[in-house]
Amino acid sequence: MTRDLHEQARELIACGELTDAQHTWLQAHLRNCDPCGAYAQAADQVVRSLHSVPLAADRSLVRATQLRVRARAEELQRRQERLWLVWMSCALVGLSAALTTVLLWRGFEWVGESVQVSNLVWQVGFAVFWITPALTAGVLLVARGTHFMESDSKPQG
Amino acid sequence: MNSAACYFVNGMESETSVIARGLRRRDPDLLDRLIEQYQHRLLRYLIHLTGNRELAEDIFQETWIRVLERGAQYDAKYEFSTWLFSIARNLTIDHQRRKKPASLEGLLDEEENVSLDPADTRPSAFEVAVQHQQAEQITAALSGIPAEYREAVVLRFQEGLALDEIARITSAPLGTVKSRLYRGLGALMPHLKGVQG
User: B82: which of A91, B129, B138, B165 lies 20 to 30 Å off by Cα?
Assistant: First the structure.
């Protein structure tokens, strides 16, 4: 018998998951090879020893993990709801802007003609009126974001 | 495929599909159940991976948070345990990277005191002492072999995972996994002679 065959047999013993053919071959090999038989017994002993290690998780660890996971799940849920609200608001604002822009334009045009100002004046007026809410919201959000960043960078007491 | 095997495969598919659906919904009850179900296996794996119970417990919690956050990525084609152990392994590697920029495979060789809590089966004081001594002997033997071998041995013989599952978790080819098992078992044999299973 060559050394390779012994190694092959021991690898099969160590790894398991044998096909029928491998199983038959290994059984035949073990019947005729005492060193590999001893290896199989030693391997079996190691595996049984490993199974006997009684490492267990504490009840308190499991409970603490479950509570942490639940808290995080709620946080993610709230975040998702906020995000959904932001998207809905954006969609509504976009829709209302699309619907009202034409009306607003006509309104400014009518006012411009009524008070007899040049086209440029009422058009600038329209642009300022149209862009002011978004500009104000943007400035407020940036200011709020800067405030948060400053709070985060402060050392925790 | 015979009917029993067919039933088994279908049963497994439906189980993993249920888990996948629940994880996509971030169902807290499902997560509670999974934490209960996999508590000992995951912690045991992490203790052997890190060599430190305290760190293992921290990563245990982080693993479940990650399962919650990335639940949508779980593929029901595979066993849940395979995905769970992969997450735990990656978190351990991340942790060690943050600690010190070292090679990935060498990360697990820092052995610290592993506290062993015998399972609560109420044996006698003498049995507890013997059990504890044996557990320490086995843990010491495991910590004495290279980390890659130890990981393969633990996943195969303690957690009972299939070879291809171990290959997936460790991102190693099947041949490498087999070689690690063979060498790992060989390295353990001299240390565990006489330890009763």
Answer: B138
